[in-house]
């Protein structure tokens, strides 16, 4: 608003770049690794999870067991998508430090449940654990969905705390790491094949999640949070300068990206105005495609990969990290 005192934006430093490193690690290891479902399913099945639902111990394939596995994947995806929409609103009120803690706690809790849960307490081959009246694996993947969404949403705030000339680079990096996180279950499966137990793998993974997410939350306090507040104040003060009836001409009013004071053309607009924009249409189309891929179980169905002969090559496709990244 004209005449209103502007809050000076603190200058980013080494601490903010350390946050980018921590945020990149958290995003790659703990955001959307559920998309590497084929390897997770193989690990759980080989450890005897849901083996008791099969008619015969060596029955292969086991439709009932596959149904349970698909239920876990579907539940996690639905929770992830729903949580992402809600947490995107929460982050503006509570801040990214809160989401980092929330995501770390939920993600680590889900991983610890994966480490200790057992579907059949009489099965000597399964990892020892306590059997709950509720399915521990269902609860685990629900927590993983919330945790992954929270960590991904808070990561999208990291590009705002670094120099604006590096905004696009860091934002692109983080978005790529979200998709690349699907490769991390391959590493977990390799550890299992190397002789590590399900408990040691997921408990260790959960401990690493706690360490990184808490460290990131601590780093958000102080100057990074002040940078976000100053940028929000700058955006809000600039919004009334553009008349609402001329919102469609906002892009022409901008000086261009070379003007460091310019804001993206949708900033400061109401939700109704943003919904009718080209950017919203592109985002909606992308999300619809993603939901279809997830609901159709495409590209991550272990049984489908086996039907193509993957089991005869030692799960070579499921273990191909490069192929998963592509």
Automatic annotation (TrEMBL):
The chain crosses the membrane at residues 17-35, 69-91, 98-116, 136-155, 167-189, 201-220. Keywords: Amino-acid transport, Membrane, Transmembrane, Transmembrane helix, Transport. The keyword Transport applies. GO terms for cellular component: membrane. One of its GO terms (biological process) is amino acid transport. It is a multi-pass membrane protein. It comes from the Eukaryota. Its main location: membrane. The keyword Nucleus does not apply. It is found in: Membrane. Belongs to the SLC43A transporter (TC 2.A.1.44) family. PANTHER family: PROTEIN FMP42 (PTHR20772:SF2). This is Slc43a1 protein.
